[in-house]
Amino acid sequence: MRGLSLLAAAALSACTMGQSAEEVARAQAKSVVNGVVAQKMPGVNAAPVTDCIIDNASMGEVYSIAKGAVVGVSADTVSTVMTIAQRPATMSCIARNGLGVL
Length: 102
Fold this sequence. Notes:
By secondary structure, the chain is mainly α. It has one domain (25-96). It contains 6 helices and no strands. It is globular and about 35 Å long. The model has no long low-confidence stretch (mean pLDDT 86). Keywords: Signal. Residues 1-21 form the signal peptide. This is Succinate dehydrogenase.
């Protein structure tokens, strides 16, 4: 709960600086996903895979993943990231970017 409060506070403070809560959450989620991709898919350029995963996640999933940047990455977070990575739209995105590694 405390982590959620911190995430909300960070998102709200960023809003006053010109960023929306969605933008802040997406940035935080990207940092988490990048770490998960690097760990689960060694040797892969994580950045483009991360972009595909974030682009194919729902906002609820983005917020859930972003929470990992505040409270730590849990097994549920890793599972969410890997589930999104295996979706057809995500796989297509990865293939379009020449990263057919999943």
